[in-house]
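Appendix B, Record 12. Input sequence as logged:
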Amino acid sequence: MAGNRLVEDPDSDEEQLAVDGLVRNKNSRFVYLLTFLSAIGGFLLGYDAGVVSGAMILLKDEFALTYAWQTALVSSTIAAAGVFSLIGGLFNERFGRKPVILCASFVFTLGSLLMASANTRTALLTGRVVVGIGIGLVSVTSSVYIAELVPSRLRGRLVTANAVLIAAGQLTAGCIDGLFAYDTAAGWRYMLAMGAVPAMVQFIGFVFLPETPAWLITNGQHEAAKAALRRVRDVDTADVDEEFSVMKMTIEERSRNAATNGCKSIVKDVLRQPALRRALIVGCLLHMFQQFIGINAVMYYSATIIQSAGLREKSVIIWIAAATSAISFASALVGLSLVDKIGRRPLILISLLGEYNLVEEKYSTGNRS
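Logged structural output:
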């Protein structure tokens, strides 16, 4: 019998491959699940931008909103998001990625319910500010959470999922706006309240997700970091231990450099190296150009812009605005499918060409008028 145990089983390799495949599929599904739950943060950002566009058509009549109040309702959310995206970075380092996302989804849910139940302009504005706080916290955290947890072979595509879900949120908001546009008395309440649904899904889902290993290692929770790695990696214990050791060494070295030279040393190191300096400048300029063409204004005020063109039927206006979101979502899907096939640079050049044509057309139209 002992000798029989030493005889190689011809089926053993195939059985082991099958087991490895099941583990790989199980872990891959878990990685996709945590990516989806984290990227709901992008969905919330897109939903808010899309829903306020259609809801504003009804809110103007409900609360007799002046142009100043319309601007305040939109810009207050953006301002709060901007401030708390900066504060969120500090919260991430102090409390961890998971608690910040839990807090953000709770705050967004609260803000959605405050807006939906508002009976005064002030209450509505308060809800918009609260929603902005949630957006600011989650927008600075969700991509970090994905990048620190998913395997490197999937990181690029899964981080991009956050941008795709922003467009998906805009499209979903446009459709919900269209469905409730026929209820001119209370339709806007349902539009704004529906934002609480994905936020609650994210909150409930994140209760069961792990903290990122990087944050756990930074705060001395080594066993918890190993456990988190095992949940999301499709490799054996030895490989997880090796990845943990490399990660621990990198984080400790970074901490020593920061303690010795201060945080400013990181910025100085980036600026000293020409390649990193160029990448930083190009990345900042790309974001700047994206904002300066006015796409955010178009998304927040798309229904109002269409209404100013002369249309009077509110439901038609809102559905046309939803079509704009549909085009944005379709373009995001095309970009996601092409990013690994033709590369980042060609896609960026194509986008910049489209932005240039758009700005030129706006300028030409303004001169003719």
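The radius of gyration is 24 Å.
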